[in-house]
Amino acid sequence: MSTNDQPVSTARSDAAVPCASSDAATEQTTLIEPLARPLTGAVRVPGDKSISHRSVLFSAMAEGTSHVSGVLDSADVRSSIGAVRALGAEVNVEKQPDGSLTGDIRGWGSAGPSQPTGAIDCGNSGTTVRLLMGVLAPWDITVELTGDASLRRRPMRRIAAPLEMMGARFAPEGATTLPLSISGTRDLAAISYDSPIASAQLKTAILLAGIFASGTTGVYEPAPSRNHTELMLPGFGVAVESAPGEAFVRGGQSFHACDVDVPGDPSSAAFMACAAALRPGSSIDIENVSLNEARIGFVRVLERMGAAISVKPTGSAGEEPCGTISVSHVEHLRACEVMGREIASLVDEIPVLALVAAHAEGTTVFHEVGELRVKETDRLAAIVEGLGKLGVHAWAEGDDLHIEGVPGLVAPAGLAFDSLGDHRLAMTWSLVGFTGTHPVSIRDFEAVRVSYPGFRADIERLAK
Ligand code: S3P
Questions:
Q1: How confident is the model at residue 27 (pLDDT cuts 50, 70, 90)?
Q2: C-alpha distances in Å from residue 19, one per residue of 2, 81, 120, 148
Q3: Domain shared by 276 and 200, yes or no
Q4: Which residue puts its alpha carbon closest to atom 9 of ligand 1?
Q5: Which of 129, 218, 284, 335 is placed for a possible disulfide with 362 were both Cys, Cβ 3.0 to 4.6 Å?
Q6: Quick check: CB of 127 below 6 Å from ligand 1?
Q7: What is the extent of the structural domain holding 136?
Q8: Is the distance from the beta carbon of residue 200 to the nearest atom of ligand 1 less than 6 Å?
């Protein structure tokens, strides 16, 4: 049974929940045919993945029953739902006609999470496991955390180290990867943490623990990462002080239930935007997307490349500004330079932006993108290899990615890509087929279930 077939409307609190697992990755190959027509019309992408995770986790931590709507129904978010159920939250959400999840989550509040009976499997979801460490650190329980083969390779020391400074313990000692277990404590001490990386997962884990620590916890980042946590916590009754690149919480606060409406995911929107930018004749509107500046760095990069892209604010979902992103194809794109400070605002969009850069005139440089090596796969290596198949020279120089664009690039016939179980690579390489002139085959295209299960249906609908 695929993860997306698992029922989500039954409350469970007593067992480890097997969640999304890319260990189940198929050997299956999917043929992606060129779209018969340009992309035109309007589309609504599914709920934002980062905000969906937070809506589930924060509701689980709260006293009372929160109402969530527009939640992304994807394998990753189901990992968060499975995890909080295993810890005692009651999740009663149902699939809506638009594919999103809406319903109630009754949190554990001041009673704290219950001791699960087995390991929590976080599937492919880095956000689930890393945020969960911050959720668990303030409670006297020991929880084993694991994930699929991809997640078991990803670095966890970056989260464990600051949480240890606060008083949590990890086993095995010095654990760098999953599986590991975390033992929390009611006696957490606040820290002031100079983070070596701009990571919202790291920042959030520390802040969530800090809410229960004695004293004020602060996180300083080398560049501002996405700020959904800072924007959402006040709705749950938790005061946060923040400025770009820093955030502080006072200890001893408690979470109260809240209503959360999740806007569309800019990272999913980026694939539609880039598809329209690449397919001649296209002109689309992507509606109800979060326009949070910490997330729409890809729009700024496409603007600099000369793409016809614009954003129109239409309102907000909670504290998140949202609106419409409009994109039309233009004949000529130019290379641009993307600076290290911008990377956090487009980190998940680099594979698809790299594909657009492959069509632009000149050499595009993405500076300081070493983090790509420790995403769901080594995306830096995958981009260089995948663009090479298109006949595009791309290379890494230290932590910088260079792409020598080929204006008028036509992908050769018979191309085959491997998603390596990485959802963003599956969508990126599929655009070679969808927007090109020859079909491409993609091994484990189904990895898209992690963030955008309806991706193929949405893009094909725009081309009808
Ligand atoms: C996320 C933060 C980013 C991003 C990930 C989701 C989040 O990771 O790549 O897809 O929801 O906080 P890092 O915090 O590791 O940069």
A1: confident
A2: 10, 9, 8, 9
A3: no
A4: 348
A5: 335
A6: yes
A7: 49-261
A8: yes
